[in-house]
Amino acid sequence: MARLAQIDPSPEFRGGAGAKAKLALVESLLAEQEARPCALFVLRWLVRHAGVERGFCAVVDGDMSRLTGLTGIGVPLAALDSFTLPLDDRTHPLVVALAGAEPVAFHSSGQGLLRPFDTPLGTDSFHAVPLSRSAEHGDFSPGLLLLTSRGDGPLGEDVRWAAEMLGVRLVSLWYRRAQIDERRHKRERSWLFGIINAVTDPILLTDADGRILMANAGAEMLLTADDQKSEGRRRAVALNNMLFSAALFNAEGSEQSRKELLLVDPTDGQDLLFEVLSTPVRIRIGEAGVVSILRNVTDLRRASDEIEENYRKLRAAEVEARAERDRLDLILNSVVDPILVTDPAGNIVLMNPPAERMFTVRNRAGGGAGSSTEAERRVRANDAVFTSFVSTNIFAGASRHWRGELTLIDPETGANVPLEAISGRVSSQRGEETAVVTILHDLTDAVEKAQLYEQVKRHSEELREKVRLATAELAEQNELLRRQAFQLEQASAAKSQFLANVSHELRTPLNAIIGYTHLMLEGVSGALNASQNEKLGRVDSNARHLLSIINDLLDIARIESGKLPVQLERVAVPDLVDEVMTEVEPLIAGTSLAVARSIAPDVPELRTDRQKVKQIILNLLSNALKFTPQGSVSIVLDYHAVDEEVSVAVSDTGIGISEENQSTIFEAFGQADSSYAKRHGGTGLGLSICRRLATILGGRITLVSKLGEGSTFTLFLPRRTRK
Amino acid sequence: MSQEPETAAALPPLVLIVDDVDHGREICSEYLEFRGFRVATAADGQEALDKAFELLPDVILMDLSLPKIDGWEATRRLKNDDRTRAIPIVALTAHALASAHEKAMEAGCDSVVTKPCLPRDLEAEVRRQLEGRPR
After folding, report:
1. A201-210, A301-310, A530-539, B53-62: which has the highest mean pLDDT?
2. pLDDT at A489 (0 to 100)
3. What are the φ and ψ backbone dihedral angles of A595, each rounded to 5 degrees?
4. Which residues of chain A does B115 touch, with a Cβ-Cβ cutoff of 8 Å?
5. Is the pLDDT reported for residue A4 higher than 70?
6. Mean pLDDT (whole number) for A550-572
């Protein structure tokens, strides 16, 4: 498989090349435009003129990254093609040789060789000759000649010259080639831009970080703005960039993606909707990018939105229309009055349920064949009446509405139904008469209502009359009562006056009796014998009793007629008790009774009528003394703080009062034993007066007694009497 | 009981008894004479005024319900006259109501005695009036 490079042995290889041979080589090199033949010329020339046995040329490639084989003589082509040496391995002997200016000789013995390596020469003994260096290639020569000498002898001087010639020629050729490539690239680039700019859809190439590497005119319009553009435009562009980056970021992945993107038109601020098609691409080795194509779908979307909106409106209108119809139906059906729509010929085209009741036969199965027929007859009659009403009026006048009364028959009951009918013409826009709407109003109800109203009115009037009478009667009663009250007042006054008069009239003769009796008893009319004296004494005693009765009666009358004024003042009850005790002293003296008095220390002053309290206590004490033949009488004063009451209890060990008499003892002439009372000169009115006085003062008198053992009368008085 | 102390130099006091009722006048005058007073009587208000101005009594016992001029009016006139203003007037009345007493005091009476009364009590009242009056 090892094909050998072409060998062209030449007789001149040993000796130095002549000027003629050198010139021939230079001419050959200049005539050749390709690198490879040039290298081959030089290798052949070296075999022929410089003792070279085999050799090959390796050159630095375009991006200065490695050394590759170009051509050779006596070298297997496969080995030549596969030869490659990375230049970044700066310690490699060949890389070192390439960087140097002088040829380097390598030998199998290891001289100058740090480690064994392969060359297409297949031997360790060779020479590495750098081609002449050039400014463009920096540290490196454009290439190396690797040569073996015949019989391992030294290489001739011309090797360095030939290598220099080849280097100069190769650099020259590369430079020209680069210029040609550049022009071609520029041309192709402008074509490419022409193409992508001709596409109206924005197209962008972005790197892995989202930076825009390339954009066509459409994309630049959206995404770039220099400082000369308006503020609004710059802002729109900034916004678009943000939106676009976000969309791109979200679209990350190796797959082609499609999505929608809303951007702003920087020229007029309108929203633009794009469909973005993003395709990942490889920009350079190990560097990914994305090509995005934006398709403006704004109009498309708008059109689709419009279609959708129109459809929605259509649906809404349909729903509205249906609702309107339902509402109309509902209204018609809820009206209790019959409503009918007739065509101009008088045929009924629409009616509500109340109208159906009058104009259709209902309940066909219900009423039996006979009644059904009867109902149908009535309906037909109704129809005729109604049609005649409508058609008569429709031709009668120009008025749009008319009103009338007609009588129909209830199909079910056969009863006459008086109705008021109101009809109105319905005309089309062109003025054609299209229908007549008639509303029938049942007058039966109105008639009944009118009657009912009359009835209510009558009742109301009756009621009003009754109220009037009652009021008058009440006024009369009031007047009567007022008069009666007045009369009562007058009667009361008359009664008081009468009592006063009676008292006066009784006193005058009594005065005579008492007066004359005394004149005689005093001996004014001469001396009396014992019997006369005793009898006159009886007259005197009875006259006085009569007088005290009259006085007591007068007291009661005064209390009852409210003519006993209450005079309130501060009263010390203990002092009052002492006063009473003093007054009854003569009475006590005439008995053998033990009379005791006890006063609690906390008895307060009262606000009450001193004279009346004294009268009560005096009466109670006198009674106790009178009705107690033997034993004791006590008077006890106490204060009851809770009720704010002062109590004056008069107790005796006297005759006592039986239970049945206790209830009447306070009534006038309620004395338990009248015979006893007479003996003691009581009038039988004292307790009655006491109780009345106590009541006037806001107090009360209580009694605890047992027949034969004694009694306790207790007067309770409030701390303050109110008028 | 029949002998009353009498000063030798002076006449006994004169009491004018005014009452339209005969027995009223009689009881009073008999008793007071019996008790040593001088007595004059009048049966109505006009007579009472005439006697009072004529006799200038030491005390007047005045019934109030009188014909012609009643006791209240007579009292008022006597008390409004310089000649009789100083004479004590004891009202005698069968009216037991408090209002009658007040009316009497308002008219100018010096005290009130309610009828019926014992002649003895009447005498005591007359003596009290005489004592209060400087002679």
Report:
1. B53-62
2. 76
3. -110, 120
4. 507-508, 511
5. no
6. 79
Q: Sheet holding A433-442: strands in order across?
A: A348-351, A339-342, A433-442, A416-427, A401-409
Provide the 3-class DSSP secondary structure of residue A436: strand
Strand partners, B85: none
Identify how many contiguous H helices and E strands chain A contains and give both numbers. 18, 23
Kindly identify which residue of chain A lies nearest to residue B94, measuring between CA atoms.
A504
| CA distance to A537, A555, B75, B93, per residue, from B99 (Å) | 33, 14, 17, 12
Q: Is the ipTM of this complex over 0.95?
A: no
Angle at A66 between CA A64 and CA A70, to 5 degrees: 105
Collapse the DSSP code of A345 into the 3-class scheme (helix H, G, I; strand E, B; otherwise coil) and give the result. coil
Q: Structure pTM?
A: 0.39
Rounded distance between C-alpha atoms, residue A71 and residue A58, angstroms: 7
- pLDDT of residue A8 exceeding 80, the answer is no
Task: Give the best residue of A495, A497, A507 to mutate against chain B (max B CB count within 10 A).
Answer: A507
* Range from A84-98, A112-126, A393-407, A519-533 carrying the lowest mean pLDDT: A112-126
- Quick check: bond before B116 cis, omega within 30? yes
Joined tokens for residue A204: 């962008």
Model pLDDT, residue A254:
63
A566 close contact with B: CB closer than 8 A? no
Residue A48: Cβ within 10 Å count: 19
DSSP state, residue A150: G
Read off the pLDDT of residues A116-167 as tens digits, 9 standing for 90 and up.
567 778 777 888 888 876 555 555 678 888 888 887 777 777 888 888 888 8
Tokens at B42, concatenated: 């009048």
Residue A17 binned pLDDT confidence (cut-offs 50, 70, 90): low
- d(CA A381, CA A385) in angstroms, rounded, equals 6
First and final CA of chain A: distance in angstroms? 158
Can you tell me the mean pLDDT for A158-180? 85
What is the dihedral angle through the alpha carbons of B36, B37, B38, B44, rounded to the nearest 10 degrees?
-140
**Residue of B115, B120, B121, B122 to mutate when probing chain A, most A C-beta within 10 A:** B115
* Distance, CA of A198 to chain centre: 59
Between chains, do A515 and B23 touch, taking CB under 8 Å as contact?
Answer: yes
Query: Residue by residue, what is the 3-state secondary structure of chain B?
Result: CCCCCCCCCCCCCEEEEECCCHHHHHHHHHHHHHCCCEEEEECCHHHHHHHHHHHCCCEEEEECCCCCCCHHHHHHHHHCCCCCCCCCEEEEECCCCHHHHHHHHHHCCCEEEECCCCHHHHHHHHHHHHHCCCC
- A-B Cβ pairs (cutoff 8 Å, strict): 75
In contact, A405 and A423? CB cutoff 8 Å: no
Judge contact between A649 and A577, C-beta under 8 A: no
The minimum CA-CA distance between B22 and chain A, rounded to whole Å, is 10
φ and ψ at residue A162, rounded to 5 degrees: -65, -40
Overall size of chain A counted in residues: 723
Amino acid (one-letter) located at A158: D
Compute the distance between CA of residue A201 and CA of residue A221 in angstroms, rounded to an integer: 11
In a 3-state reduction of DSSP, which class is residue A438?
strand
What mean pLDDT value characterizes chain A?
82
For A72-118, the DSSP string reads EESS-HHHHHH-EEETT-TTSHHHHHHHSSS-EEE-TT-TT-SS---
Whether residue A452 is predicted with pLDDT greater than 80 in this model: the reply is: yes
Report the C-alpha gap between A73 and A146 in whole angstroms: 10
- Angstrom CA distances, A641 to A281, A591, A668, A718, B91, stand at 115, 36, 33, 11, 47
- The Cα A45–Cα A50 span in angstroms is 8
Distance CA(A466)–CA(A474), nearest Å, equals 12
**Cβ within 8 Å, pair B94-A500:** no
Q: To which residue do tokens 């007291």 refer?
A: A555
